[in-house]
# Entry
Amino acid sequence: MKVPVRSILALRKASTAVAAVEKITPVTLSSEFFDHIRHEVYGDSKKVDKVVVTVKTEESSKPVLVNRNVSTAFHCLNHINKQFADDAVLVEVIPSVGGSYFSSVNQPLQDQAEIRKIGFDTLENLNLVNEAYWRSCSLVTAAFLREALDVDVDFKFPGGNIKDGFFSVVVKGLDGNIFTPDELGTINRFGKSYIREEKQLEVISIPSTIAEESGINGDNLIRIGRQVFSTNGPVIRSTRQIGRFLILRSKIAAKSEKDVIVGGVSIPTKQPTSSYSWSLIAKNANQKFNRNL
# Structure
């Protein structure tokens, strides 16, 4: 239920309306824009060519006939079995021409290739998986904050490393108002409900020419529900892969009187932990967030 969050921040908005002078630039990354860019990159979805994608497993390789520019790695992995596909966080794509690269599972495949599943337990790609998970948590946080808050907001993503112990999002449009403990509680309830909806992270890989022409700051366009963001690097497949999740607190960004940084922590669904261990993880993340930003 998003009404409680809107009610809390609607009151705050009314109380600060007189002081608010700076006008927030309207968001240009819309769901319709995402569809437009997808057509620009991949062409007409009704006119498809077939390509063979070979799914590599530890035991064998399985060729799969798929729709070029429409089918994703997730569709291909499902031809092995549903559990195999559900466990995928990223994939390594080895095209028939050109070098291999790492990709989001929901990114359409553009040419004949081999693909290798990468999961949370793929040790040789652990850093890549951790970065993708942290990046995804930041994007999901921005998505549910935009839906929850009764003010127009935009976001910046500072990046960060799993070793920092927390992820963060810069929120522009709160006029320097940090969240109260009651508001944080409501936002966390809203966020956890949002995550439980198992929203897909749709992905478009943006060629540099289209990114420059369209003013997209990043090599990937991500859609979560109806919220769209640009980013650099791959993301996880679904909010279903997000396990324990907590927004820690917010504070004023350095060198800014208006931007607010929101910090959070999470662990994947595939890495269950006890309540006691989770409390220690959250405490450590909160301390690092307070100290480092």
Q: What stands out?
A: The two ends are 31 Å apart (CA to CA). The chain has two domains: 3-34+126-292, 48-119. The domain at 48-119 is CATH 3.10.20.30 (Ubiquitin-like (UB roll)).
